[in-house]
What does this fold into?
Amino acid sequence: MNGRHRAIAAAFRIMAATGADRWSRSFAQGKGVILTLHHVRPAGPRGFAPNALLEITPDFLDAALGLIRAEGYDLVPLDEALARLRSPKRQRFFVALTFDDGYRDNVEYAWPVLAKHGAPWTLFVTPGFADRTARLWWLELEEAIRALSRLDLALPGGRFLARTGTDAEKERAFARLYWRLRKGPEAILLSAVSDLARQAGIDPAALVARECLPWETLRALSGAPGIAIGAHTLTHPMLAKHDAETARREIVESKARLEAELGLPIRHFAYPVGDPGSAGRREFALAGEAGFDSAVTTRPGHLLPEHAGHLHALPRVSLNGLHQNEAALRALLSGLPFWLRNRGRRSDPE
It folds into this structure.
């Protein structure tokens, strides 16, 4: 856990110790919250694990859902979340659960826990992962750095060199290279990760097959009680880094492909990565034009009444694998971290 996450963890503990996560609800809590999840699986050996923030354990999911129920909050599907958001009536605080990418562990480990609590959930699927043609580049990068003892990459702006013999060196190299690549064009990012994967003997398609659900399982899931399938683009690009026609195709054709494969309407969409550098006003408009009822970002925050007029730019709150504890969850559900982040102001929904 780096310094930033240690500071966040400390803030969560202070909120719990002072009771601020309870008394702040009257002014900090929105109408509801959409939670973002990725992997759910048992904890493994840690060491070098730069993507650990993307996974929680089944035990923590179980505890989180139990706490949500114990607090008297409603667990609702996305359709109902939208209806409550539009409604002027005062209703109980609600929580909607969303899972991005379409991972195998969502079915193996998350679904039994969700069923135990009667919790509806939305699975945002990238058809390219089901086809084994899109790339989990962030995982390729992790696996390549894990396998290599030294990095040597020719990049625009200068060569990237790093020793990666120890876990600490690997963590530092991953963070430096990840953010350097994220700042530039996605084509350069993908090319650089491909180069490292080749050096390390990583097979990108095999990695996707290991991690992501195949079409036959997705077809079995579609229409199951409590489960909704949403779209997550065709190939998981950071849409704002591409031209309008590419972004439109990724959004529109992901909906069409899923509807053709699964035989049911696809009404909700999630922007890959989902931060301001990956999805903005252009992408919000494209999702609306494509006919989605809603589209979710990863911009952190609760659902406020004004979001009813911005249904294709909805915020979410991540259940972060680095903060799997009751203090963190209570703080996030209170809305206080986001109220403080915005200095007590209502933020622009877009």
